[in-house]
Amino acid sequence: MSSLIDIIEKDITQLQVDAIVNAANRQLMGGGGVDGAIHKAGGPEIMEECRKIGICEPGEAVITTAGQLPAKKVIHTVGPVWNGGDQQEEEQLASCYKNSLQLAVNEGFTTIAFPNISTGIYNYPKERAAETAIKTVKAFLRQNDHIDEVYFVCFDEENKRLYQELI
Ligand code: AR6
Fold it and tell me: Which value does ipTM take for this structure?
C-alpha cells in the first residue's frame, strides 16, 4: 500500500495518531515550543519516563507513553542546533526523521506526525529543514511499506507555505 504525506496546521498535541514526534533536547528535560506543549498537555507521566531514559543524543529517537494525549505514544527526537551548517546539522536532522520512523515501524505503528524539528528555538533555516524533512521521509517510505500516513504539522505560516510548495 502506498503511504500518504499530509500537511496539517494544528496543535500536534491534539492529534489522534499512533505516534506524535517531540522536538526534545538532549537531556529530555522538557522546555518551550512543541516540547513544552506536549508535556503540558500530556501530563507528568511523560516526564517520568523521560527521566528513566536519561540522555538522547542529537539525531536519535526514544519512545515514551503519551500520557493524557490522544496519540498512542510520543517519540522524542533531538534535532541539531543550527550552527552555520557545517556541523553535521543536515545529517543529524535527517537522522531524526529516519530514526523516528524506524521506531514507529518497530512498534507496529502506521501513522505518525512530525513537528518542524529544529526550526524554532534551535534556529535551523526553515527552507533547508523542510527540504531535508521531505526528502528523508519520502526516501524512507519508498523502502518501507509499513507506514500508511505521515503528517507534517506546520504550526507557523512560513513552514506551511514551504511544505506546500515542496511537496
Ligand atoms: N504543535 C506543533 N508544532 C509546534 C507546537 C505545537 N503545539 N508548538 C511549537 N511548534 P521548537 P526546536 C513548532 O522550538 O527548534 C524546546 O525548548 C514551532 O513553531 O519547539 O527543535 C526543546 O526542549 C516550530 O516550527 O523546537 C529544545 O530545547 C517547531 O515546532 C528546543 O526547544 C519546532 O520548534 C528544541 O528546539
Answer: 0.98
